[in-house]
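Q: I'm writing a short explainer about Ras association domain-containing protein 1 for a general audience and would like to include a description of its predicted shape. Could you first generate the structure from this sequence?
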Amino acid sequence: MCDGGGGEDQTPSFEMTWGSTTSSGYCSQEDSDCEFEQYFTARTSFIRKPKKEKDEQVEWGKQQELSVSEIEQKVKEYNAQINSNLFMALNKDGSYTGFIRVQFKLVRPVSVPPPRRAAPPQDGGRRPTGIKRRTSFYLPKDTAKHLHISSRTRAREVIEALLNKFTVVDNPRKFALFERTERHDQVYLRKLGDEERPLHLRLCAGPSEKVLSLVLKENETGEVNWDAFTVPELRNFMRILQREEEEHVKQIVQRYARARDKMRDALASTTPG
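A: Of course. Here's the predicted structure. Afterward I'll give you a sentence or two in plain language.
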C-alpha cells in the first residue's frame, strides 16, 4: 500500500491487536436464516455510547499541503513523542510512512468465507448448486489494528486493507473511516472522504489518541445503498419487511374488530323507542 520512494520502509507491514479473544455472536448462513435476524434484533443491544457523539468538521481535515521542510519538522516532533517503535519515516521524495491504529466499532456482524472442507460425494456425479456459503460473526468490541501505510494512502484503501486482513467479504462501501476527537468530555466524529489521507491526519494531530483517533464504523449515510448488499441479504430484508407488514395489518384488523364488537353490544343493549 505504501507507494513512496525506494527502500524497505515502502513495504507495508501489518500488526493485529485484539482487545478480546471471543466474538459477541456467531451464526452461519449455511445452517439457518438466523444471521439476518441477528443483523437487526441485536443492533440495539450493541450500540453503547457512554459519551454523546456529535458530527463536527474538525481542523485536521482542513490541513493544507505541507512543504518538505514542514513535513520533516513535524515528523521529528512526532517521533519525539513516541514511546514505542511506531515511528514515522521520511522518504527522499518527500513522502513518509508510519503506523495508524484503527478501532473497530461495528454494531452489525461481518461475513467471512466458511472454512474449507472436502465436498461430499454427489449422486449421479452432479456438481453442487452454486450457492455461496459464508459465515457471519460479531467482532469483539475492543478490536483494533495497526497498519503501516504511506502518506499517499487514501481512506478507502485503508478500509479495503482492514477488510482484507480480517478476510471480510462484505462490500467495502458498507463501511466508513471516521475521525474521533475528545474535547471537554464531548466526543466528536467526522466521516473521512475516500481521498483523505489518514497518515497525514495522524501527523498533523500528533500521536495522542485523545486528540485524534481513527474508527471504522458502518457507513450510515441516511440513504441505503441497496446495490452494496448481496441477493441473500436483500431477500432476508424482504422477509423481515413482510413480517412487519403482516403484524401491522393484524393489529389494524383486531382494532376494527374490537370497535365493531362494541358497537354491536351497544345496539343489543339499546331499547327500541
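A: For your explainer, you could say: The helical segments are 34-41, 43-46, 68-80, 155-165, 198-205, 231-269.
Q: Perfect, that's easy to follow.
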